[in-house]
Amino acid sequence: MRPSRLWNSPVGGRDRSWRARPSRRTPPSRSGALGDRDDEHAEEFSADLVADLRAARGRYPTDPALTELVDRRRSASPELARRWAQARVAAHRASRKTATTTSAGPITVDCDVLSVPGSDLRIVVCTAVPGSEDAARLGQLRTTALRALA
């Protein structure tokens, strides 16, 4: 991620179980996602999240809330159970997604995951290439969200 792309980017935090922790800069309605992921990027993103969750489970084997979350999600989701059985462990660092269900139309963004040292908090920063149609659409969403908050 280039620092010049960070300014005015949607930002949200995630804890070790990838639950959203909205920032002041990101409206609550937008803190979890920019919309649905396209199929091309959804597979990679899902695999990365399960691998990251498995890594957190390894770091905190006696955390009852995390154990309960993993058990509940594995029972409810055959896809998560399948990925969990693959035993892949990794830290989710970056991905690309195309948000397909925004009011501005499809937007492709790079999502960089920044880890906060000494904690399990992750900051997810989504950026579009400056000057691109995606950047213009992201700006349009930002304006719409700010109006909604006013």
Describe this structure as you would to a colleague.
Helix 2 crosses helix 3 (78-85). Residues 1-8 and 21-33 have low confidence and may be disordered. With 150 residues, the protein is α+β, with helices and mostly antiparallel strands. The chain has a 5-stranded antiparallel β-sheet with strand order 2-1-5-4-3. It has a single domain (3-149), classed as Beta-Lactamase, CATH 3.30.450. The protein has 4 helices and 5 strands. It has helices at residues 39-59, 64-76, 78-85, 133-149; strands at residues 11-14, 20-22, 94-99, 107-115, 122-127. Residues 41-141 form the MmyB-like transcription regulator ligand binding domain. This is MmyB-like transcription regulator ligand binding domain-containing protein.
